[in-house]
Amino acid sequence: MNFSLKIIDACYKVREKYNRPDFIIGYRLSPEEPYETGLTMTETLKLVRALVTKPLQFIHISQHDYFKKARRGEGAGQERLKLIHEVTKGKTALIGIGGLVSEKDLNKAL
Q1: Structure pTM?
Q2: DSSP-derived secondary structure for the chain
Q3: Looking at residues 28-36, what average pLDDT do you find?
């Protein structure tokens, strides 16, 4: 997590150095890993809480299924994107993708 945050800070320093306020900086991640030794939603939400303290223009969540529920850790059994939205709401834009292939899926996501 510290490495990711330092990279974001470095990107902002370069943007300022070259006076490019129009250069958009965001962060893309895949939440929670399926393996017992992988990241849990607790760790994912800890990262997202740190990311919203940065002046990012967006956080992009990529997963196979938009409506996937958390397996382990904080919020287990709840939709991952809803958990992340509760952290990002009002702080930065949130983009979520994953398996939205029909009009019904898109309407449900909205």
Answers
A1: 0.91
A2: -HHHHHHHHHHHHHHHHTT-TTS--EEEE----SSTTS--HHHHHHHHHHHTTS--SEEEEE-S-TTPBP-SSTTTTSBHHHHHHHHHTTTSEEEEESS--SHHHHHHH-
A3: 90
